[in-house]
Amino acid sequence: MKLRHIEIFRAVVLTGSASGAAQLLNVSQPVVSRVLQHAEQQLGFKLFDRIKGRLVPTAEARRLYPDVERIFSDLERLRTTSRNLRQHGVGHLRIAATPSLAQSLLPAAIERMRRAHPDVVFELITHHTTETITAILTSSVDVGIVSAPPMAAGIVSRPVAQGHIVLAVPASWPKLSRRGPASADALAGRDLIKLHDDTPLGALINERLDQTALLQDAELMVQTYSLAAALVEHGLGYALLDQFTAASAHVQTQRLYRVAPAIEFPVEMLRPAHQPESVLADTLGRHLSDVASELSERAEALCEGREIVLTPGEDADEA
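Request: output the structure for the sequence above.
Response:
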């Protein structure tokens, strides 16, 4: 089927008549009838039966229709991209980010970009890491913002920040130690809000917890740091969070601890290897780095020197 055949076919399905399709497409009814007849001749089967004055799709036509809708969805995205390019030139940036980074880093970075580039069109999508990589490889987005991404062919990564993990506990809990660093034993028997280990960072965190036998206390399992932080705020358990999410902690409801030895990870901006980095992407990367630095400083201040040692056999001074 040619594109014109597909357009006419879809319009007839939606309207139920040649006259309705003609009105929808702003063409004459003879044009619709002629194109539809030509499509059926090429296909070798009927697309519609006339029943009580309406054109009803045949079984073959109903099988074709989902693919036709997918084609029109792709065409609509193409029209949107073309319109944005016409109106804004290269001022259009499609960004995919993991949920935690989309909530913690991205809003402030976009706000700063908008001040300097008010005409830029931003398209923002939240994806997990594997979905973000797929979106970049299929050209569905221009850049991806992820934590600790795996290596992937066809992807170029640019470090934008260094992340680390902090411990968040409800502020209503007693302090984990009276003096000096706390030990993992101080958390024994308390409810753990566990991050799914289907991401590289989640696996790294849970591997550290497994060394301390704390995973046996996992009562809640989540996929995003922001949800884990919200559960901590409601007193439902403790969680290990990235410092960017933790920086938004309310001191009235959460208490933060540095983690030792440190659990560190890179935050990287990904793009297709076959395309050079655009000016907009470069600007976004610089703003992300600035925002990350500011949030890291805030998280460190919220820790107030508190620290927890998450290794087996470490004893904290709780005297």
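Residues 162-265+297-309 form a domain with the D-Maltodextrin-Binding Protein; domain 2 fold (CATH 3.40.190.290).
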